[in-house]
Write a structure and sequence with these properties.
Number of domains: 1
Strand order of the largest sheet: 1-2-3-4-5
Strand content: 15-25%
Number of strands: 5
Amino acid sequence: MKKVNKHNFQNWAVLCMAFFFLAFTSDKISPRLQQKLESAVQTTFEVEDFDMNAVKADLGDDHLFKIEHQEGNLGYAYLGKAPSMKDVFDYVVLFDPDFVVKKAKVLIYRENHGRQIGSQRWLKQFIGKTSDSSLEYGAEIDAISGATISAKSMTKAVKGVLEKLKLLKEEGDL
């Protein structure tokens, strides 16, 4: 009978666990989400060719990109997830170089209920907002009947993005 080397087995087990951990905790963006993000950048900044370079910052599962064109810095794109009633949705907030909101957009919404938050008519309320702006759901940001949870969540997400960017600027990371 063949003798199993206990040390080799342990090394193999650790390598397998590390592989699975890295595979399931990857911060990669799905091709579908990447395509939607790039489309939002193209239409908002009215450019065909641009570079999106990840900004190194501790944002959890979210992403911040600097958008550059041959003429220089166009602005920034913050890609995040926010909770809806039973799932999460992906959104992007696009900023000019001074971190003023140019556009907020829901990229992927995974539920049938609450889709009204994807309406540009509602989302345009975020345009022009800065870290000094007040964003209170039901006050500065209109409520949406039938999408209360998602609308509150989007409002809270944009407010959080603005606060994170303010902190990153103060710390000199931007």
